[in-house]
Specification:
9 helices; zinc; binds adenosine-5-diphosphoribose; protein-malonyllysine demalonylase activity; six-stranded parallel sheet; alpha/beta; single chain; transferase; SIR2/SIRT2 'Small Domain'; globular; Rossmann fold; 2 domains
């Protein structure tokens, strides 16, 4: 059985990472136009660096939760049975990999990496970024940016994602509001191929009507249960 799972910020919420569009979400405190667009970065790079520096600084103390671990187990068990799990995440945190997921696509990039806007080299990055940071490869100063996808930019690895989704036996979306495309459009791509689609979320997402099955509740409760059910049926 080939399964594709799309995760959003709801899967990390119980680890203490803020979601985006909930009442206390990131975009209730920050203007996404200033913090997460190429135009915002061009206008005030110091503000954008401070926004991501704060998140990068907080991440090492955050721990994966039962939902992340259940998805790592699903990958391992499916592989042992000749199947596969492709985990596509919109999250820029590293909690899926720390829980043990391997076949993982970060479609919105990674907080713990930085990229040079001059030579496009990508680097693991634990430290603060600033407008003075030099690129370790080309030594250009002032062009380093977080290796994340901003609004108006094209998400990463879209070809691999569409290929995996349209050839899957099952698609599931976990902890995402379905507000941001193209991620939110993946359920439609799967449905167009007659692939069953399961939604696991705290509440119905904006795309809830497109799913053929849905489970509502906190990810740490409903994801491990769904993984066991799926493995029992696989
Ligand atoms: N368990 C399951 N779902 C949860 C939980 C939880 N404990 N807590 C919140 N949720 C759900 C919310 O009900 C909501 O539907 O997670 C969803 C989070 O939605 P958003 O805040 O919109 O986050 P996400 O879908 O990941 O956003 C997509 O938007 O700002 C951009 O690039 C950013 O990747 C992000 C993208």
């Amino acid at each position: 059985m080939r399964i594709v799972v799309l995760t959003g910020s709801g899967v990390s919420a119980e680890s203490g990472v803020a979601t985006f569009r909930d009442r206390n979400g990131v975009w209730a405190k920050y203007d996404w136009r200033r913090a997460a667009t190429p135009e915002g970065f061009a206008a005030d790079p110091a503000f954008v660096h401070a926004f991501y520096n704060e998140r990068r600084r907080a991440l090492p103390a955050v721990r994966p939760n039962a939902a992340h671990y259940a998805l790592a187990k699903l990958e391992k068990e499916l592989a042992a049975r000749g199947g596969s799990l492709t985990l596509v995440t919109q999250n820029v945190d590293d909690l899926h990999e720390r829980a043990g997921s391997k076949n993982l696509i970060h479609m919105h990039g990674e907080l713990m990496k930085a990229r040079c806007g001059a030579c496009y080299s990508v680097h693991p990055w634990k430290d603060e970024l600033s407008i003075e940071t030099r690129c370790p490869v080309c030594d250009h100063a002032g062009a380093m940016r977080p290796h994340v996808v901003w609004f108006g930019e094209i998400p990463m690895a879209l070809d691999a994602i569409y290929e995996a989704v349209t050839s899957a036996d099952l698609f599931a979306a976990i902890g995402t509001s379905g507000a941001v495309y193209p991620a939110a459009g993946l359920v439609g791509e799967a449905r167009a191929m007659n692939i069953p689609c399961t939604e696991l979320n705290l509440e119905p997402s904006e795309n809830a009507w497109l799913f053929t099955d849905s489970r509502y509740g906190p990810a740490t409760k409903i994801v491990p249960r769904w993984v066991e059910e799926t493995l029992n049926g696989a």
